[in-house]
Each structure stands twice: as C-alpha cells, then as structure tokens.
C-alpha cells in the first residue's frame, strides 16, 4: 500500500469523520479528555481541540495535527475546570484550516458555549442560507457552526432547550457535545446514524463517540445514547430527554465495517466480533484456492482472522504497517514514489513469496489502494492474489459523515465486479452482499434491520435536502430571488 499516496487520495475525499468526547464533574477534566481523544484518534487526525469550564470561565485550545502535535507545549495545564469537551477532526477537502478545527466557541449576549460535532448534515447548506439571510455571520465552513448559530438564535433561557430546538432543525447524521458555563449536553441524531456512548467515572459522567474512549480513561460503560436523545449533565446530575420521536434506527454499518475501533462496542455489537463474523461469512460464501490469508492492517485484521478460522487456511502477517506516519507527513517527490509506496505498508517477502494469497480488505472505495496492495504483494513474490472484501460494493456516496466521494470516483458505482477485479489486477474478487453483511449482525434475509446501508444500496434513510442546491455561489444568487421556504 502506498501510504503517502493513499493519504493524499483520502484528502481528496470530502469527509466529516470525527470523534467527540465530553466529561462533567471531574477535577482532571482536560487531561482525561485528552486521553479519551487519543483513543479516538483513528476518527480524525487533521485537527484536535479541547474546551473546558470552571463554572465561571471557559478555556479552549485547538490546532492542526495529531493530539500530540496540538498539546505538546503544556497547553493542557491552561485548561482548568471540572467539565470539558474535545474533538478530533478528519478534514473536509480543502478546508483543513485552523478556523475549522473544533470545538467551536461562541459568545453571545445570552450565553457562552463550545460545541463539537461528528457527522454530516443533509440540510446544512439550506439552513446556512436561511441563517445568513437572518443576519448570522459565519467564520467557518463546517456544519458545526450551523448548529452553533441555531443554538445561539434559539433564544431559550435554558441551554438544553436551546440545543433541543437546534437539533430539531438539523437533519442527517450527528453526535454533538456542547459545553456551557456549568453543563455538558450531548445529542445524537434521530436515526442513530453516528454513534455515541455514555459512561461514568466515579461521580463524573462521560460521553464519547466510541466505547474504547471510556475504557481508556477507566470509565464504566452505562449505555449507548439513544437516537433522538439529548442528555444534559450539570450539578444536579444527569437528565435525559428526547428531541425527536422514536423511530426505526438506522445505524451506520460502515462504522462496523471500517471506521470504529475493533475494541469498541457500537450499539450493542462488538466491532471486532462483527468483523470476524463477516470474515467467516466471506470464507463460506466465497472460498478461494489459496495457501495463506492476509488482512490489510489495521481495519481488516479481524475479518482476516474470521476468514482464516472458517476456511482452515493459515492466517499470516504478510503486510506490515508503519504506524508512525502522520497524515501531515511530507509527500515524497515523483522520483521517490517507490519509497512512498512502501513507507506505510510493506509486504513480507518470506511470507508471501511463491504463495497463493487470499487478501482480505474491508472495503474498496476508489480502488486505487487495492490495486497498489495487489501490486505490492506480487512484487514481493506472491503467485496469486485473491481479494475478498468484507462488505458489499460501495456504490453511492455517504451523506451522513463517513465518506462523500462523488459517485464518479466510486469504482463499484461504475464497474462490474469482474471489471473491478481486472482494474485492481487481482486473480479473483468477491464482495459480501447486503444480506451477508446483515447476517454478520445476526439478521436473516428479509428481516427489518436497524441499519443504514445507503452506500451499498442507494437507499438513503433521509431526504438529501442540500443535494437539490447547487454550488454555493449559485445558491446565494438563487436565494436572492426566492424565499428560503421555496428552496
Ligand atoms: P481504495 O482501494 O482506494 O478504495 O481504498 C480502500 C481502502 O481504504 C481500504 O483498505 C479501506 O480500509 C480504506 N477506507 C475505506 N473507507 C475509508 C475512508 N472513509 N477513509 C479512509 N480510508 C478508507
Ligand atoms: Fe454509514 Fe454508508 Fe449509511 Fe454513510 S451511507 S451512514 S457510510 S452506512
């Protein structure tokens, strides 16, 4: 795998993949938030930030890069207080600016608050146009600032009510954490597209995108935050209420397939266990004449273990990943391309030489990485490379916060499986079907499932409101001559 090139390609993909964390009622709120965010670093490496409150003042620090880059000069010490929120961000294309780093802090006549958000809204552009017409001035290009302005404009005395009013207006995937002067508020989208959990550390309450963050700081898992739920934690304790009526859940399967950490439990399913079952299903449905099974590190290691177990083939470590390459690493020049190819991932020649390799990967999005991995294995002497993918063909962009590469860039949207096999230069290729994927969660064909599979099925669980708007310039011109309601 070509690390540097892969990372660059991924920068081309507009994404709002992020991790959020919040804690209330602990004297070490900032350091614990830092450690919680370290556990969520896989959810975003472009920017990080923490905001705290001591009940009188709010403090914040954010910057570009990994947590270790952003908090390397003792900045944590300045973040005093007993409550905090934090954020790690996976940048949107072309928008990796400090301005877009989170948490965003807002000081209005009514209140001060900080906000961090994971997910992508389907009506953010629409709302932004409305807010701008009503006089709101935007500093960033994030959906998060739209939510912040809605909270600021809500007018309610109570911050929780203001948040509830704001999240009732937004649509799409979101897990948000909001820090007030003396309260922490968390809300999860009504379909549960993005994950969020609640935990406890002594008397302190903790919220986080994934349960691995709770484990890391020694907090006890209490429960997943319900879709459509808003939770407020203050000196009186925890108050949970709903901002949306209960409806069928549509949790993101791609969190399980690729994004979440294997040691996390997301909505009751352990990510490693799901991936391992998917690998087992792959082996049963799509056997390969191979000598060894290799998973692409790190996200496909669990599925490879499941494939090996079910097929009886030996699981080998045939690809080694260098974990110390930050996304900000300088890209090698054209002449040094081959170095770049092997910087992040290298094949172990003594393992793969002369072997028929069954290569397990969790997904093929654009196909460029897959082709490079196949080539890498062949150049290390692999005799055959049979690719098995532990998810269905990724045919349609995500609008809820995972990966919004345009349809034209998605290899499976434009090619048959046989064509993809040829394009990635594999000897054979198979994907799971959506039914196979659901079987990994224990569902039978035809069952009503609590999952979003839109990137595999094109069946989106919400209207895609902003899709009917065109470029930002065009929108503004259009709005000038129309009422917002008609947009
Ligand atoms: P490609 O062959 O270029 O489509 O890349 C496929 C690889 O990218 C797989 O190894 C996946 O684990 C990984 N991948 C899938 N989705 C994403 C994403 N949203 N961001 C970064 N990497 C991803
Ligand atoms: Fe997850 Fe795919 Fe749905 Fe996006 S479209 S929320 S990636 S399942």
UniProtKB/TrEMBL annotation:
EC numbers on record: 2.4.2.14
A Pfam family recorded for this sequence: Pribosyltran
Gene3D superfamilies: 3.40.50.2020, Glutamine Phosphoribosylpyrophosphate, subunit 1, domain 1
NCBIfam families per the UniProt record, alphabetical: purF (TIGR01134)
Protein name per the record: Amidophosphoribosyltransferase
Active site annotation, chain numbering: 18
Alphabetized UniProt keyword annotations: 4Fe-4S, Glutamine amidotransferase, Glycosyltransferase, Iron, Iron-sulfur, Magnesium, Metal-binding, Purine biosynthesis, Transferase
Source organism: Alicyclobacillus acidoterrestris (strain ATCC 49025 / DSM 3922 / CIP 106132 / NCIMB 13137 / GD3B)
Cofactor note: Binds 1 Mg(2+) ion per subunit. Binds 1 [4Fe-4S] cluster per subunit.
Cofactor: Mg(2+); [4Fe-4S] cluster
Gene: purF
Family: In the C-terminal section; belongs to the purine/pyrimidine phosphoribosyltransferase family.
Pathway stated in the Swiss-Prot or TrEMBL entry: Purine metabolism; IMP biosynthesis via de novo pathway; N(1)-(5-phospho-D-ribosyl)glycinamide from 5-phospho-alpha-D-ribose 1-diphosphate: step 1/2
Residues that bind [4Fe-4S] cluster: 252, 398, 452, 455
């Amino acid at each position: 795998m070509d690390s540097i090139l892969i990372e660059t390609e991924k920068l081309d993909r507009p994404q709002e993949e992020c991790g959020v964390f919040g804690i209330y009622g602990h004297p070490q709120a900032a350091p614990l938030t830092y450690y919680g965010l370290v556990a969520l670093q896989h959810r975003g490496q472009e920017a990080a930030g923490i905001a705290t409150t001591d009940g009188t003042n709010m403090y914040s620090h954010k910057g570009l890069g990994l947590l270790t880059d952003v908090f390397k000069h003792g900045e944590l010490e300045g973040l005093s207080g007993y409550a905090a929120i934090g954020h790690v961000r996976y940048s949107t294309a072309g928008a990796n600016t400090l301005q877009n780093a989170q948490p965003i802090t807002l000081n209005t006549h009514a209140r001060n608050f900080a906000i961090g958000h994971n997910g992508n809204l389907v009506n953010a552009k629409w709302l932004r146009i409305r807010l701008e017409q009503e006089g709101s001035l935007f500093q960033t290009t994030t959906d998060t600032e739209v939510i912040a302005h809605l909270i600021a404009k809500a007018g309610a005395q109570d911050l929780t009510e203001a948040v509830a009013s704001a999240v009732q207006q937004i649509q799409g995937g979101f897990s948000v954490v909001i820090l007030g002067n003396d309260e922490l508020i968390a809300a999860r989208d009504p379909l549960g597209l993005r994950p969020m959990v609640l935990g406890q550390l002594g008397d302190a309450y903790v919220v986080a995108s994934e349960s691995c963050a709770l484990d890391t700081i020694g907090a006890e898992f209490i429960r997943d935050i319900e879709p459509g739920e808003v939770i407020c934690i203050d000196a009186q304790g925890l108050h949970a209420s709903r901002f949306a009526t209960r409806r069928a859940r549509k949790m993101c399967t791609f969190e399980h397939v690729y994004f979440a950490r294997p040691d996390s439990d997301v909505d009751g399913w352990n990510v490693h266990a799901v991936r391992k079952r998917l690998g087992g299903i792959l082996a049963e449905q799509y056997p390969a004449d191979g000598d060894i099974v290799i998973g692409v590190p790190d996200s496909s290691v669990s599925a490879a273990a499941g494939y090996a177990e079910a097929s009886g083939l030996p699981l080998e470590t045939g690809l080694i990943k260098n974990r110390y390459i930050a996304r900000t690493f300088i890209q090698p020049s054209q002449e040094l391309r081959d170095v770049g190819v092997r910087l992040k991932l290298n094949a172990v020649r003594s393992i793969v030489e002369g072997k028929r390799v069954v290569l397990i990967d969790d997904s093929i999005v654009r196909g460029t990485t897959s082709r490079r991995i196949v080539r890498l294995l062949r150049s290390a002497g692999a005799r055959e490379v049979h690719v098995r993918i532990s998810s269905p063909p990724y045919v349609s962009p995500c609008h809820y916060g995972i990966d919004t590469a345009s349809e034209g860039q998605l290899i499976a949207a434009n090619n048959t499986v046989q064509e993809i096999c040829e394009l990635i230069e594999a000897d054979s290729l198979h994907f799971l079907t959506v039914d196979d994927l659901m079987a990994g969660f224990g569902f039978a064909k035809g069952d009503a499932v609590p999952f979003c599979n839109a990137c595999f099925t094109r069946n989106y669980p919400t209207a895609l409101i902003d899709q009917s708007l065109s470029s930002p310039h065009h929108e503004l011109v259009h709005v000038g001559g129309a009422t917002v309601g008609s947009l």
